[in-house]
Amino acid sequence: MSGDAVLEVTDLRVSFPGEKGTRLEAVRGLSYQVRRGETLAIVGESGSGKSVSSMAAIGLLPTNAKVTGSVRFRGRELLGLSDKEMSRIRGAGISMVFQDPLSALTPVYRVGEAIAAAIRVHQEVASSIATRRAVELLELVGIPDPARRAQAFPHEFSGGMRQRVMIAMAIANDPDVIIADEPTTALDVTVQAQILEVLATAKAATGAAIVLITHDLGVVAGFADRATVMYAGRPVETATVEELFAEPRMPYTAGLLGSLPRLDAGRGARLRSIPGSPPSLLEVGTGCPFAPRCEFVLEVCRTTEPELVEVARGRAAACHRSGEGLDLMAIGESDAVAADQDSEPAGTESEPIKELAATPTADPARTEAAPIPVLTVRDLIKHHPLTKGAVIRRRIGTVRAVDGVSLDIPAGSTLALVGESGSGKTTTVMEILRLRAPQAGSISVLGQDLDALNRGRNVRRRAKEVRAGIAAVFQDPLASLDPRLPVGDLLAEPLRTHGHGKPGARVRELLQMVGLEPAHANRFPREFSGGQRQRVAIARALALEPRLVVLDEPVSALDVSVRAGILNLLADLQRELGLAYLFVSHDLAVVRHVADRVAVLNLGRVVEYGDADSVFEDPRHPYTRALLSAVPVPDPVVERRRERIVLPGDPPSPVVLDGDADALRGCRFRGRCPLYAALESPEARSRCETEDSAPTPVDGDAGRTAACHHLGAEAPALIPHDTVA
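Structure tokens predicted for Oligopeptide/dipeptide ABC transporter, ATPase subunit (725 residues):
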């Protein structure tokens, strides 16, 4: 055991049975050690082996997995121990926080019972003592009214609260090591900030080492001490977080850092993307697995896989050129367009992929808006009845999904809708795409009012004409593309529906427009990588030459290294075709990169609206300020200097029960508002409690609004409330 390390992994290798007697090498030679009180981040994209390595360390892999190497905990070898012996270590010496707490928590146990059971498995204490300790742990991780909530079941908690319960269970027996596997991935950014704060509290309370498994480099920058970057099942770089971000020694690490949109960067700069996509572990050859994507590749890289060797004290890299002093952060700058492509999926013949030419035409988003916006929404309302009962159903309340949304999108510009889960983003988009008269308010698409469009003669014909002018690209391209049809038929389908008799030429044009080859028309969606499938979805959306494209989380399901290429492609298409985008995203760094204007939604209402530069650089609504402060910046120097406003609790429900008059009284954000909590004047607090907050022009600018009674309040007034530095 090295020094005072509590967990030491040496040359860990994990493989699973493959087809025809082959084995899939999921982890290939991972080594690391972690000391008490230290946080080690293991970073990688999907398929890199990071989660498999953590499951191997605590003996939770299926029996068909072959695990070799060494995993030593406090000097004791864990590989080869029986499940009974490992059970004494799991939950006591080493604990685990999983990505999905709902599947990790037993649904028939109350959360207090589950935590108490975890205590009694490893400690000989009375049931009453374990129960009391469970309540103390729930209080430690920030569960309000812990004694009462200990009696609740997991399904009665929100996602963020369930993750807090998981952390409470993880620290119940004062472990030496906590392995956190993507603990914030499925959470809203505000809840992510809370969970990271709770993990920091847990580490301080127990002195445990944390092994953080993540793909989020922003989280790594603010939370970890050291990092190991994995690619194709093996570690390719290890360093302190400060060294890794300041001077990466492996081209893959540099490419990841360069491809990330940043909240503190301006709009419009072309992202430096990595060509291709991560390889299949079934197809890893003898050379460097990153060689097909590397801009610094040598012939030796294609034939010999580099060893992970020390390049400086305390850091190592797996690159044949790591000692040459190359400026790796310049990756992609010389040929940014070519780097935007996704490689062929495993097992297919490699073909060149073209890119839309980046000709220096005028940017429509920076010119005057068209007299008639492509989309105008005024006071849109969509409420759903909430009912109870299986046989005799009765109404008990209302789901106020959208509650008065107004927005405009000029031709050639991008409007982003942002907000937490349940804020009304998706419902707003669905109301627009339905092309039906709204429940209340008005929607005008391409100059056509939807209420008028659905009345009178030839409704179907007129609706079809409008439908051709609006298209959508969704989060999961595999789910939105028919797996039974080849790509050529998928692209031809909307063309035939709208009367294009011979769509072949247009199909070839569309494929080339999104950087694919005409030969790809004969392939099925499953034969493409994730980034390529999203390019196919974009091509299908462009088939009828729309003027407005709705982009619903278009890059959130893609690997980090592939996202930049898709974002660059969308920017190219907008510039070349004059498209307007309605961009829905939870990733505010991506929104900062793409949006001209931003609408911030909370509980179905627009709480702040304006041009992106103004909203991001000078947010006026407390909710917007909290959202922006919660977004991690992938730079440890910047991230660790930032102040963070941590909103209490989880995003509230849009449900209003019948007879609950208080739910609609006053500002609906005040229950979480740091500004309201800091107000000392009874008159000011009373205004928030009794008066609804309507959108108000900011500094006399009608194009910039915020729905807050106290727009003149300075941002520093928010900082002291529930803040972590």
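DSSP finds 26 helices and 27 strands in the chain.
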